[in-house]
Sequence to fold (142 residues):
Amino acid sequence: MNYPELIQTYFERSTALQWYWTIYVLVIGGVLGFSAFRQRPELATTILVTILYGCFAYKNLGAIEATAEERQAILTALRDYPATGSADIGRVRSRLEPAMPDYDIGGARYFHLACDALTVLFLWVKEWRRNRLDASPATGPR
Fold:
């Protein structure tokens, strides 16, 4: 690969990474919205949503980590690319590479896991509250 192809590939991986995070946020919003607007307690639905969300979160985190590792490998190749042969590479490198930070894969993993835990906690707290309200003598059974 030549230097321009490496740059293009780096930004393609960056875009893919951004899309994985966007999809993740949208799914969390959907799960939280679904849970917040349900009226009746349904344990089976909460269990199913928890399992499906857990499967999605696991695969999404794997995709984020794999894409981040690819992006990091490309960044290493960019930094190791010889600057000889073209003055353009030196100019581009001096301006572009400082704006290409290393990706903190560990930080992303911990953030993802914390959001996963909070999402599942929210699901179960909402289910617990629905059960408590449904069984309260003031409202009676529905």
About this structure: Residues 3-135 form one domain.
